[in-house]
Amino acid sequence: MNLAQKLGFSEEARLLIIHADDAGLAHSQNRAIIKSLESGVVNSYSIMVPCPWFYEIAVFAKSNPKFDSGIHLTLTCEWENYKFGPVLPISEVPSLADANGYFYKTREELKRNATPEDVAKELKAQIEKALKFGLAPTHIDSHMYSVGASVDFFEIYRGLGKKYKLPLLISGQLMEMIGMNPDLNLYEGDLIIDRVHLASFEQFESGKLSDYYSQVFENLGSGLNIILLHPAFDDSEMKGITIKHPNFGSEWRQIDFDSFTSQEIKTRLKESEVVLITWNDIRKVGSIANNH
Prior knowledge:
It is built from 14 helices and seven strands. By secondary structure, it is of the alpha/beta class.
């Protein structure tokens, strides 16, 4: 029995999660994600616990449990002038921080410097901080998919899913994108996203990002699909954060917001006859399955 059947749908059903990353990154990001949930078609988001605006989005999440929210495990900080680091004291996880105490910018630097022991301590601390705040996460995923920087880190990620009994975002596509070999790192029993729909920099650069989004529902296959978005506003805050970083920059994030709160997308979604589900739906099915 596949996931669709466990959820009560036909075997060939096209399941879809419309997901917003990077909640907590900035006030602009939080405002856009909240509006995308309340008046758009986004039905899932995940929170970056180490970021300065975590508190704001955590209060929202706690007050609005009807919205699907996960933990966006964070080990890297890609921005030029906007920095954040581990939730643990640097003395406890020294291999995760640069000379100034911030996360490394790239997965490559993370892989070169970080020890599995420090990664395990920090990721557990991020989840525990969210739980202590009173959040009830529905899943776990990863900023920049940095848990895939090494096989050891990915095993820690997998172990956290088991420990906290939460589904993980596991995708062969994302593994390939960051240089992992899916054939060696996807296990029987993993909940695997069949298709990740993530716009490319080429589409953004050529002005075709809106076109990609308007057609995305036509390209959904049977099984579990996820659309990954980063909605925010192209305001002075996000311009400052994303300076010299057009890839997933402030202009891109505004298009994400505009597209997935538009009437056109709402109409296309309705016409597509896809089945919108949440991580919480998957979590409940998983817990039922684990009891048998």
